[in-house]
Amino acid sequence: MTDVLVRPQSAPPASQRHGRGFWLIAAVYLVALAFSTAPTPLYPLYQRADGFSAFTVTVVFAVYAVGVIVSLLLAGHISDWTGRRRVLQASLGLEILAGVLFLTWTALPGLIVARFLTGLGVGMLTATATAYLLELHRAHRPGAGATRFEVVSSAANLGGLGAGTLVAGALAQFVTTPLRTPYVVFLVLLALSVVAVAAAPETVDAPAVRPRYRPQGVRIAGPDRTAVVVAVVSSFAAFAVFGLFTSLAPSFVAGALHHPSRLLAGVTVFVVFGAGAAAQAVSGRLTPATRFRGGLIAQAAGLVVLTTGMETASLATFLIGGAIAGVGAGILFKSAVGTIAANAPTAKRGESLAGLFLIAYSGLVVPVLGLGIASRYVPSTTSILWFTGILLTLLAGVASLGLRRGGR
């Protein structure tokens, strides 16, 4: 009788595992960001159920953004030494808890608490997932350019934000329990995301001596400080446009424009984020200078068209302006992420990206909260005119600084 030597099946090469991990984390990133915007097309339903105003919607949205900022300050950087997977698992746990609250506590206080928890989860996830994707990309394709990382990470971010409103709006339009079914669907996807993170390889080696914990400041490492300033101000301006659509746009379309469709509310927001994600995907072959100028021009032009649509009560003009502004915002944000990720040292990458997202999410809360306050005293169209004027001034400053840097 001869002995049969059975060789254990070898593990897949590290590059293959990192390649699979790259797409798993991209999917997790997309799902988590989609969940964060799922309530957006549902706000008019919450308003009718509880009778609160557009200003209250702004406050609910601001609570979410505050949660993101608090989380970025406290935990956005710790994955640099605790590991990417551990932080992602914790962030998904917070989002699952928020989903349970959305299902079981539908009154305004429950909505506020759930939105704050969602913000905490997103704040932990954004910088960590972005840094994780870059490291998985480099491990899978050593020596390759960063184009795939930039396209996929930005598309997962903006594509996820847009997909959340579209899925929730469609479900709310065609199911009998519109304030429950979307959250059930996303809870299932979030549970699957936990499994996906567990299957992805870790990319951070724990240091022999763990650094002393401190809250994250606005610290963005990199040798070119002008490039950092351009990146952070661009991201602030981009997220101000996104904040307008994820907070007030559905209520404006349902009220001022008299289109109460829940699906249309989701489509309205998806148009902006979808246009931004598409622009990020097709702008990769442009030179950085051309991409930067194109993003500035598109966002400025889109704001003008969008404001015209509001003044004339034209839904088509409003959506076209939103799409053009979304194109510009998407390109500017992609450029900002690429700049910070490429210039930050490896040991400071998560911290630097957390700093970028901290400023970007400030762009979500500050202008939109200002719009909500202004809407209590002046018509919404007037407050949007102010919003547009301030953003155009900010974009002009970014253009001047960025183009001077390019000339040098």
Automatic annotation (TrEMBL):
Signal peptide: none
All residue ranges annotated as the Major facilitator superfamily (MFS) profile domain in the record: 20-408
This protein's record includes keyword Transmembrane helix: yes
Transmembrane segments: 21-40, 52-75, 87-106, 112-134, 155-175, 181-204, 225-249, 261-282, 294-310, 316-341, 353-378, 384-403
Key words, A-Z: Cell membrane, Membrane, Transmembrane, Transmembrane helix, Transport
Pfam families referenced in this protein's UniProt entry, alphabetically: MFS_1
Keyword Transmembrane helix recorded: yes
Subcellular location: Cell membrane
PROSITE patterns: MFS (PS50850)
Topology of the protein relative to the lipid bilayer: Multi-pass membrane protein
InterPro entries xref list: MFS (IPR011701), MFS_dom (IPR020846), MFS_trans_sf (IPR036259), MFS_Transporters (IPR050171)
Organism domain of life: Bacteria
PANTHER family listed in its UniProt record: MAJOR FACILITATOR SUPERFAMILY MFS_1, RESISTANCE PROTEIN MDTM, PUTATIVE-RELATED-RELATED
Designated name of the protein: MFS transporter
Species this chain originates from: Paractinoplanes ovalisporus
